[in-house]
Amino acid sequence: MHIAILMTNTDESAFAARHPRDGEKFTALIQEARPGWTTEVHGVKDGAFPESLAGLGGVVITGSPASARSDAAWVQELLQVIRDAVAEGLPLFGACFGHQAIARALGGAVGENDGPFVLGLVDVLLAEAAPWMTPAPARVRIAAAHGEQVTKLPDGAVVNAEGPGCAIGGFHIGDRVFTTEYHPEMTHGFVAALIDALDGKMDPAVIARARASLDRPADRALFAEWIARFFEHAR
User: Fold this and answer.
1) Which residues partner with 159 through β-bridges?
2) Does an H or E element contain 33, and which?
3) 92 close to 194: Cβ distance less than 8 angstroms
4) 177 Cβ partners below 8 Å, 6+ apart?
5) CATH number at residue 66
6) What span, in angstroms and rounded, lies between the C-alpha atoms of 62 and 25?
7) Which of 55, 85, 154, 170 has an alpha carbon within 20 to 30 A of 108's alpha carbon?
């Protein structure tokens, strides 16, 4: 299967330059579950959108420090691409910013966290798991890095996960849309490096909690399998 990855991450810092970009991260995640699958990466945050969605097995929209509430031209174009993909029945997966952008594009709403910035590894409770979310344990551990979240679901959306201070930790719409507020693409080492990079730039309590969360690994392989099964189920 061939998947398009729409890269929205606007971080061009020295820290970002030392690590794989999000297109590489999601390609690695997908290929951990399905080694034969291929991807194409489009830097939509720079205005580089796919010329066509035809022939794709699905689309992944990455996370970003940019706000899904932005009126920036590239964000507005992305919202239209999301609407077009849904209208065409193309399977669409979004993580963090991607999750929020999908919600906004389809009539939901995005706002600031009720509490502090969420950073590190968190335990997320499964709500109404979609058919492809198997096995479906009561909770999964996953990387988090978000100051905004979905505050209102699009019509027809079903919440499939709840995280700390985040009632809409993920949702699905039928079998063509699947989202998460979290970051399944982030490795344990990258999360640790991100926490170090943000030390001194955030509330010390947020950093302390994030560091303490590294005592156990994320369920990366499980989420990779869910993403692969989502695209397979949709086809």
Assistant:
1) 171
2) helix 22-33
3) no
4) 86, 91, 92, 93, 102, 106, 157, 171
5) 3.40.50.880
6) 10
7) 55
Six-digit token pair at 175? 């079998």
Q: Which amino acid is at 215?
A: D
Amino acid at 71: D
Residue-wise DSSP of 120-183? EEEEEEE-S--TTS-S--SEEEEEEEESEEEEEPPTT-EEEEEETTEEEEEEEETTTEEEESS-
User: What number of residues does the chain have?
Assistant: 235
> 37, 4 in Cβ contact below 8 A?
no
Domain range for 24 is 2-234
Q: What is the pLDDT of residues 111-133, one digit of tens each?
A: 999 899 999 999 999 999 999 99
Contacts of 68 (CB under 8 A, 6+ apart): 75, 97, 100, 101, 103, 104, 110, 148
Place of tokens 């993580």: 95
For residue range 51-77, list pLDDT tens digits in order. Answer: 999 899 999 999 999 999 999 999 999
d(CA 177, CA 155): 12
Q: Based on the structure, what is the number of domains in the chain?
A: 1
